[in-house]
Amino acid sequence: MNKYESTVKYANAPIERVYAMLSDLTSLEAIRRNISNPAYRQMVMEKAGDKVKPEQLDQIEQRLKEMVITPDSITADAGPMGQVTLNIVERETNRLVKLEAVGLPMAANIWIQMLDNGDGRTAIKATIGAEMNFLIKQMLKGKLQQGAEGLATTLAMLPY
Predict the structure, then answer these.
(1) What is the pTM of this model?
(2) What is the set of domains in the chain, with CATH numbers?
(3) Which residues have C-beta within 8 Å of that of residue 101, sequence separation ≥ 6?
């Protein structure tokens, strides 16, 4: 399995709140409800700085509306690949949430690691693992590295 790790990012919330939100995917419902609120969008834009453009938020809002969310899974339309589901397959309290992708043409996992930073903040690191042949690996490794980094950045910005 090829692994792509993010750098460590910091969420401004205690680890218990971060873990509670990330280990129960229905917590994304609050984001889905709020993403169309202008004040919430403004807060997201301010936190993200130049990393997120308004049109990207529009795309995120549309994708969130189309997702099926349960406590243990998220199912979304992945374009030409069809439906892709992320299932939580492992939880370690205040430490780790591991998700497995179903519906991709390859085996893939996401690990979200958390560490209490001791000052009310939580360190977060995302790792994407995927089984790929050499050719596919060469085509996707940059995108998967960006994906791990983007995921960690997004998780650090969530309103816990």
Answers:
(1) 0.84
(2) 2-157 (3.30.530.20)
(3) 84, 85, 86, 107, 108, 109, 110
